[in-house]
Amino acid sequence: MTTPPEAQAAAERELCGLVNGLAARIADHVRKRAVPLGLTAAQATALREMTGPMTMRELAERMSCEPSNATFVVDKLEKRGLVERRPHPTDRRARHLVLTPEGTGVRARLLELLAEDSPLAGLGPGGQRALQELLEKTVARPR
To answer: What 3-state DSSP class applies to 54?
Structure first.
């Protein structure tokens, strides 16, 4: 049995509203948690995503932005002494972004702050995994 187009449109509209609302709550949460550390939301996002050495392109993909935007953010983090650009170990054309010891400390504090009252905390670990699986299915689906 297929869903009538009007009902399908209404369901998608509601789901899109919920996803957008969650994204806005997460963005607001990141912004508020970044302030005590003297970071912008974009800088906090970059630090959160820096789980190890990576190229600017990799960071931009994780941040869901253009490499030029990631470069601007990293420039600011580098000026603060939180990130360094180092030669890439296997690609002489690329640079690796690496957290400095101070950057590692700020990132650890940021992660603690982001864990406080997270918009996703109410789901619990199982609910978060289930939501992640559902979102991955929709994002990975061919267009």
So the answer is: strand
Query: How many angstroms separate the CA atoms of 63 and 49, rounded?
Result: 7
- Are 63 and 30 in contact by the 8 Å Cβ rule? The answer is no
pTM of the full structure: 0.85
**Do residues 97 and 54 make contact, with C-beta atoms less than 8 angstroms apart?**
yes
pLDDT digits (tens, 9 = 90+) for 84-96: 999 888 888 888 9
Q: What is the pLDDT of residue 141?
A: 67
**Of the candidates 72, 59, 138, the residue with the CA atom closest to the CA atom of residue 98:** 59
70 has a pLDDT exceeding 90: yes
- CA 66/CA 134 separation, integer angstroms: 26
Residue spans of beta strands (DSSP E) within the chain: 83-87, 95-99
96 - beta bridge partners? 86
CA distances from 97 to 12, 56, 62, 67 (A): 39, 7, 13, 13
pLDDT in tens, 40-53: 999 999 999 999 99
Torsion of CA 3, 22, 48, 132, to 10 degrees: -30
DSSP state of 128: H
